[in-house]
Amino acid sequence: MISSSKTVCLLPGDGIGPEVVAAAKAVMVTVGDLFGLALRFEEHAFGGDAIDRFGTPLPPETLEACKRADGALMGAIGGPKWDHLSGDSRPEAGLLGLRKELGVFANLRPVAVPESLAHLSVLPPDKVAGTDVLVVRELIGGIYFGKPRVLAADYAIDTMTYTVQEIERITRVACTWAMRRNGKVTSIDKANVLAVSRLWRETASRIAKDEFPQVVVEHMYVDNAAMQLVLNPRQFDVILTGNLFGDILSDLASTLAGSLGLLPSACLGGITPLFEPVHGSAPDIAGQNKANPVAAILSVAMMFHEWAMPEIANLIEESVSNVLLQGNVTADLVLEGQPFIRTSDFTLLVVNEMTSKYNRVAIDV
Ligand code: NAD
Predict the structure, then answer these.
(1) Does residue 67 carry a catalytic annotation?
(2) What is the pTM assigned to this prediction?
(3) What pLDDT sits at residue 292?
């Protein structure tokens, strides 16, 4: 029995966001019952939904609620309905603004492919089985935030900038995680072309050498990294990279596991930790009870890890893994026309697995 109370700010957002957040909430409610944990939920408008209701993708009430909470869980934002909007009025601006306002500069995106689940991968199982990569992506700097940003009729400008301090702090996060894992960091850049990347490489090398002598740091160009992730993903332990390259490479890495719908993430280092499935709002399947809720559910597990409640996090992770191992998969993990499990049924299976696993352990004890 864990005696504690936590407030979770839920941001369902758009498309499949509300469906996967509902699944994640069902898992949290179950955890609350099983462990006697008082979880309080607040739900707030975000993204396109907030634009429709409040005229802005990040209403002040939503931001304040996130700042007050012990953790925030987002579903996904965006979709064709808001594609005609530009700049700060877009749903994506709400997400970038929330990350920036919370100061969550470190985005952790784990991609693990255990032998038992390698058959779900898009790649041959013998190539990916045993892959265990943690992508550490810088989240509130780089080209997504650099100024000037201009969209004129005949030209456009985006600006990539990183300060030494920004690179130092994200390097420390990557090296700290490497020390808990297999001691290797692969820092990804484009130092053969970009000045920012040359500063990135120099700074990451220095911090690793001065502060983490036990960690082996290697450097790789982003184009090669994309190829290596497909050819030989097991060579990676911790990947350290900037905002843009991390965004792209972590989506690519999702194919190793089998689907974007399997990958959770945690955004840390700020006022409140923010947890987000890696995927977007998947407008093509929204509202059909077809979304894979695993990424959102495993994001909840990351929340409990962050709150130093590993017992709960492990129960969630093992239960999801067991349900998948029993052959229960959502539509994204089967070929067209083959049978699949709907979002709500998959969630129920996870909840039942958690309850029976918890009871088995309790009886054994
Ligand atoms: P997407 O991640 O929404 O979808 C890519 C593909 O993966 C689609 O075929 C989709 O059906 C599938 N997919 C994604 N998540 C899934 C899940 N949980 N279960 C089953 N299938 C899943 O990316 P996109 O199509 O490039 O973008 C759609 C919208 O989402 C855009 O408006 C984009 O801006 C937004 N987006 C939001 C986020 C975010 O909220 N963090 C991230 C990426 C994209």
Answers:
(1) no
(2) 0.95
(3) 97
